[in-house]
Amino acid sequence: MLDPLEGESSHDRPWVIGVAEGVAEVDFGRANDDHACVLRLKLPARATVGESYQLIELCNEAEREVGEVEIDCSHTKVFGPFGVALIASVFSTRRKSGRPTGLTPPHDPDASAFAQEVGLTKFAAGHPTGLRTLELREMTALDAVYTDSVTSMLTHGVPGMTSESSYTILLCLNELLQNVFEWSESPIGCVVLARWYKKTRSVRLAVIDRGIGIPAALRRERIRALHRQSDADVIEAAVTAPRLTSRANQVGGLGLKTIRETVCSRRGRLTIVSLAAKLTWSGDRLSRFKSPPLRGTAIEIDFRPDAEVPDEPGHTPLF
Fold first, then answer.
1. Which domains does the chain have, with CATH numbers?
2. Beta strands 69-72 and 285-303: pairing type?
3. The model scores a pTM over 0.90
4. Is 197:78 a contact under the CB 8 Å cutoff?
5. What tens digit of pLDDT does each residue of 84-141 get?
6. CA–CA dist 6, 26 (Å, integer)
7. Which of 208, 307, 201 lies closest to 262, judged by CA?
8. Using CA atoms, how far apart are residues 258 and 246, in angstroms rounded to an integer?
9. Around Cβ 7, how many Cβ atoms within 10 Å?
10. What is the C-alpha separation between 157 and 151, in angstroms, rounded?
11. d(Cα 302, Cα 211) in Å, to the nearest integer?
12. Beta carbons of 270 and 238 less than 8 angstroms apart
């Protein structure tokens, strides 16, 4: 079962034609002092993939602001890899353009400990993170040592992790990173976070870049008339059409379709947010959600390494 705290938010409703989406409940306020006017952006109580609508609105507001920004996590009680990596990408983007950005840490003790454990507070301060640990990692190039290290740490530290399931993590991580550096054109590379959640016995992996996005990349190639389809339709094709995103005869050339099949066969979930669409696969179920425009692509994988993989062709485990 997936963690209920990572469930859908009120802003992650499936698409309904003719019904306007609500305004995200993100507090955009300004704090004034004697020297500067700072835009304070308050995170929601849950900074998870389920709250992607609010988090992306905050992300967009931060990146439009030319002055100083303070990311306020004071009321945040739950973090997920998607939320942490997206926040980190805001810091990376603004840092690259020389715009000052601060972080107000959570008041909640557990959330504060988690933010420190994953390296979010260090990352926000500009310190190196993710060196031989499972902290946040900003990557500007492929690094086989890093992916091997992450896989090794999960293999030795996660109950039920087998050589087969750890190899799955390695292949998925390599594929997602190759996608970033092959076609994303992301000015910051990408931000990666992998975590083990004891409560749900699941591994969650988030990879976020700030490039052109999956739909734009595939439309350029004019494959199967994708240039005339919506963002959501292009993403669905990328994940479900055979060999559309695979690299034949290349190491790590799984393609998003195989990643989805591998993750979902282990009672997992694959979420992709890119441009103006968010899609989630759980088993053989696909859910589409409205999303504010996200420059780039954000992917979170959540699966149980100890889940039994069905032998019957076409069988999908039930939650």
1. 4-303 (3.30.565.10)
2. unpaired
3. no
4. no
5. 999 999 999 999 999 999 999 999 999 999 999 999 999 999 999 998 788 999 999 9
6. 18
7. 307
8. 9
9. 13
10. 10
11. 23
12. no
